[in-house]
From TrEMBL:
<keyword id="KW-0788">Thiol protease</keyword>
<comment type="function">
    <text>Cysteine protease that plays a key role in autophagy by mediating both proteolytic activation and delipidation of ATG8 family proteins.</text>
</comment>
<dbReference type="InterPro" id="IPR038765">
    <property type="entry name" value="Papain-like_cys_pep_sf"/>
</dbReference>
<keyword id="KW-0813">Transport</keyword>
<comment type="similarity">
    <text>Belongs to the peptidase C54 family.</text>
</comment>
<dbReference type="GO" id="GO:0000045">
    <property type="term" value="P:autophagosome assembly"/>
</dbReference>
<dbReference type="GO" id="GO:0034727">
    <property type="term" value="P:piecemeal microautophagy of the nucleus"/>
</dbReference>
<dbReference type="GO" id="GO:0005739">
    <property type="term" value="C:mitochondrion"/>
</dbReference>
<dbReference type="GO" id="GO:0016485">
    <property type="term" value="P:protein processing"/>
</dbReference>
<keyword id="KW-0072">Autophagy</keyword>
<dbReference type="GO" id="GO:0000423">
    <property type="term" value="P:mitophagy"/>
</dbReference>
<dbReference type="InterPro" id="IPR046792">
    <property type="entry name" value="Peptidase_C54_cat"/>
</dbReference>
<dbReference type="GO" id="GO:0015031">
    <property type="term" value="P:protein transport"/>
</dbReference>
<dbReference type="GO" id="GO:0005776">
    <property type="term" value="C:autophagosome"/>
</dbReference>
<keyword id="KW-0496">Mitochondrion</keyword>
<dbReference type="GO" id="GO:0004197">
    <property type="term" value="F:cysteine-type endopeptidase activity"/>
</dbReference>
<dbReference type="GO" id="GO:0019786">
    <property type="term" value="F:protein-phosphatidylethanolamide deconjugating activity"/>
</dbReference>
Amino acid sequence: LFVATLTYDTLRFEYEDFPETKEPVWILGRKYSVFTEKEEILLDVTSRLWFTYRKNFPAIGGTGPTSDTGWGCMLRCGQMIFAQALVCRHLGRDWRWIKGKRQTDNYFNVLNAFIDKKDSYYSIHQIAQMGVGEGKSIGQWYGPNTVAQVLKKLATFDTWSSLAVHIAMDNTVVMEEIRRLCQSNVLCAGAAACPALESDVLYNGCPEDVGLRERLTLWKPLVLLIPLRLGLTEINEAYIETLKHCFMMPQSLGVIGGKPNSAHYFIGYVGEELIYLDPHTTQPAVEPGDSGCLPDESFHCQHPPCRMSIAELDPSIAVGFFCNTEADFNDWCQQIRKLSLVRGALPMFELVERQPSHFSNPDVLNLTPDSSDADRLERFFDSEDEDFEILSL
């Protein structure tokens, strides 16, 4: 058995390699065998962008914290699930990071979107400050729903990625809403209509064949985040099979959530254990080198990933999916429908064609992002906040 011991600050972690098991290992829609593909598993894990606590970054808001140790773990997990969406969007699911190998500009563009400085699209600075509008003061702990809502707002400024971000509330995914959102740039079918957008942004990098362009602009790549509560204080066993299936789908972005007192980014499972990346390591903030190139090794977890029993998962999570094309979304819908037929698998959410009429009933808890019931929304989905202790900086 391979065990690596790493020491960061005064924290000591021991990482165990994967168990020798016949069970398949699933990582974000890819299936592996421990016996024949161990190197491939580790390469896949290492290639995910790993965001951890950092110290000595520019003060948030100019006068705020210069480290997120003790409070930023869910914000870092939000960054990781969103970074995976950007990797799929700009580099593809099969892209791999190899230590010492020169990476493309697109890779550095993705990484730069998350760097700890105020002008990066999805920096800790942007997330913390945008969270103030969601009722979270800087340095306060977020739940999975809050970080999802904040990332959705930040994505509107990321014209390079041009994503449609949908957060499915009330445990219900409404297909009609998603189609409307993803087809919202249909007016840009003619190149002249959107001269400011680069062709590769608008047309997914496809050749500039006008007929092709018109078809391709009909769908913005979709990031679908579904905040869920899978039990009261612990996960209801009936959801475990369904949760596992989410990691088997090619559209999987993984899950953010955790166990009481800490948030993790779950990227797969083996047997009855979840595989995750852990943000609870404090590293120094990274500055671009003299050449303007960013030293990126600390953004890749180069030891075997952590594992924990699925039964230990806190019931409050957000599940993520990425559909680059309309065909991807249709395929995802089909898989979700099939999943409802699996014996012993309780659906975690409902998939419906259009908004059920009871949604408009004012007596029903209204969970739209811009709802004036923001405080009720917080209590409903972020009730786990109370279980998290804020460590003093």
